[in-house]
């Protein structure tokens, strides 16, 4: 019986990990044609975008039937949320929100939101009111919506900027959310065409996590947003493009973040951010999964790249394995350090993801990886005690 305990403990830890770490993909209605290409089994949540009310408060996703997407996601084990509003509202939608969220109209509107969730077999509600659409009624609306959803065990979440809290969001409204999807992208874009560069850099993701933690939001109520798109500053006006398109042009772009005046997040950066999310918050969020690589280039899928890191973490979550290899920092820029017992001799082998050996050495304290191309690597350490293995990301 004793021999089974470590396995059972490992299984319990892996199950707990798999249930707690979220992989959330937004899916706009105009990407529904890609629903059969999306690997929903690699997601935990799908946020359908976006539902807006008519003058009477009846919600609609641009008159699109969401039922097939809800069914497909549920069949693959995903929770499905409806995301309200969006980053851009038509003048009609904006007027409807402002009217329906007046104190006298809010209760009836909120009841229609609840009815929409129940009628469409949805699992939660996401509030994505942004910037100029965040009015004085925002926090009262959130609190009343939370009060209506909580007795039904329906979660309430929000998409909020990477490092900015709208002044209209009170502490109680912020606390009402089950979690917050940090939109850690659009640091640069078409609104400032003279300032080209990376719109979603890794170090900014670190800053954004720190920002929301300092706002009093616990790490278990944060997810780290990543983009599946980029910006081309070489055209006028500056234009966005999806990850699928840049990979279709040249599959080598999957491992890059920049060519000429185009910037995006390739596989190494997305995987590094997934590692950061695993270390610092409770999940990763994607805007948006319909922009991923599919078809002939599915092997370059960013969702698959995320899933690979999450999978590796779930396998390595147990602390009971004495042969576990600890490498740090991870991701790494210059020098990789290994944590190993001092009383053994070692041989270190580092390989890239194609299996090509890039380092073979007896040096075990620190290894210079500054000249390594960005990407994921496996590391194997051989000693008399056995083989220790691990992975790290070079950024």
Account of the 3D structure:
The chain has helices spanning 4-20, 67-75, 91-100, 106-119, 138-149, 171-176, 202-214, 243-249, 267-280, 302-315, and strands spanning 22-28, 45-53, 59-60, 79-86, 124-129, 156-161, 179-183, 222-227, 229-232, 239-242, 258-259, 262-263, 283-287, 326-328, 335-339, 347-352, 357-361, 366-368, 375-383, 386-394. With 395 residues, it is an alpha/beta fold. The chain has 2 domains: 4-315, TIM Barrel; 326-394, Immunoglobulins (Immunoglobulin-like, Sandwich). The strands form 4 sheets. An 8-stranded parallel beta barrel has the order 1-2-4-5-6-7-8-13, surrounded by 6 helices. A 4-stranded antiparallel sheet has the order 10-9-12-11. A 4-stranded antiparallel sheet has the order 17-16-19-20. Helix 9 (267-280) runs parallel beside helix 10 (302-315). The longest helix is centred in the N-terminal third of the chain and has 17 residues, at 4-20. Residues 1-18 and 316-322 have low confidence and may be disordered.
Short characterization:
With about 400 residues, the protein is α/β, with parallel strands linked by helices. It is built from ten helices and 20 strands.
